[in-house]
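Retro notes - structure team

What went well: the batch runner handled both jobs without manual restarts.
What didn't: labels got mixed up in the shared folder, which is why I'm recording both outputs here explicitly, each with its sequence directly above its C-alpha cells.

Job 1
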Amino acid sequence: MTTQDIAGGLPGEDHSLLLVDDDKPFLTRLARAMESRGFAVDTAESVEEAVSKVRANPPAYAVVDMRLGDGNGLDVVSAIRERREDTRTVILTGYGNIATAVTAVKLGAIDYLSKPADADDVYAALTNSSGERAAPPENPMSADRVRWEHIQRVYEMCERNVSETARRLNMHRRTLQRILAKRAPR
C-alpha cells in the first residue's frame, strides 16, 4: 500500500493535520474522521498547546477554532504561518462575521467554516483547489438556530450559570430560562 493509497488522494507527501478546538467531543469525532481520510492527525485544545506543537512540528494542514478557552485561534494561524507558509489552514467558528473572516484570510487561512461543520465540509475545504469556488450550503442554519447556538455557547462558557449568562447576553434571566428549556430550532 502506497502513501497515496493511505492518503486517499491528498496532494503532496506530508499529510500532517493539526486540529485545534476546545470542544473535546467535537475534536475527537473530527480527528477520527480525518484519520479515516488519510491524515496523520495531532490535536490541541488550547492556543498555548497548539502553538507549542506548531513550533515543534509545523503541520501541512490545520483546522483551528476561532475562539478557544485561552485566546484567539488567529494566534495559532499566525504561528503556523511563521513556521510554514504552505500550510493549508481552515478556521472554524460559531461566531462568523466578515471582519474575522478577512483577518483569517490575511493571516493565511484558505477557508472559513461556520460550526457545526461536518468532516466532509472540513475535508473539502482542506483539499479544495484555490481556483474552485465553494458551493453555498444546501441547508443553511436559520437565524433562530444561529441565535440558539450562540446562547448555548455563552451558557457553557459561563459554566451553565443562568444569571451570569443572562447578564452577558443582556437579557432577562427568565427569558433566558424559557429559551434554554426549549429544543433547538431547525
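Job 2
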Amino acid sequence: MKLICIGRNYTEHIKELENEKPSDPVVFLKPDTAILLKKQPFFIPDFSNDVHHEVEILVKINKVGKHIQKKFAHKYYDEIGLGIDFTARDLQKQLKEKGLPWEKAKSFDGAAVIGRWLNKNEFEDVNNLNFTLQKNEALVQQGNTSYMLWKIDEIIEYVSKYFTLKIGDIIFTGTPAGVGKVVANDKLIGCIEDKQLFSITVK
C-alpha cells in the first residue's frame, strides 16, 4: 500500500507558509515505513530541530482504480480517518531552496500518523466535516473539508490519472492553517466532529 499526500489544499495554510497557490494539486508520496505504529509515541528525528504537526482528513481506498472519473470517485472509499503528516520543516526548507524533492522531510519513519477509521455514512456530507488538533489540551488546528481547494472526489480523480489506486491505499488530503512545532512531552489529540480518532505523545 502507499500513502498519497496532497499539499497546499487549504488557502490559509498556503498563506502561512508563504507558498504560491497551485493550479493543480501538489502530490507527494510516503512509504508504508512512515506509518507510526499503533500505541507508539512519535520520536523527533535527530536530523531536525523543527518538526511540525499537520493534521489531515484521510481516505482509505477500497478497490482498484485507474483514470477514475469524479462522478464515480465516491465508490472507491467507504472510510474516513484523521492523521498527521509530520514535517521536518527546517529540512524541507533547505530542500525547497535547492529545488530538491521533499521526501527526506516528509517520509521518514513515523512521519505518518493514522488514527482509527469511521464509515463515511456516519456523516451527512464528507465535504462539510469539522476536524481539529489539540496540543496539550490547547486547540492548535481546526479545519473543515468545505474549505479544500480540491475536494475528496476531485483528488481521487486527479491522482488516479498518475497512479493506479489499490485496496488499502491512503490519501492524506491536506492540512489547514495552524501548523506548528512539536517538542518532547507534547500530547496531540485529533478529532473529527466530536469523535476522537487518535492520541499520541511526542518523545
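One thing worth noting from job 2: Helices lie at 11-16, 89-97, 103-106, 152-159.
We'll revisit the folder naming next retro.
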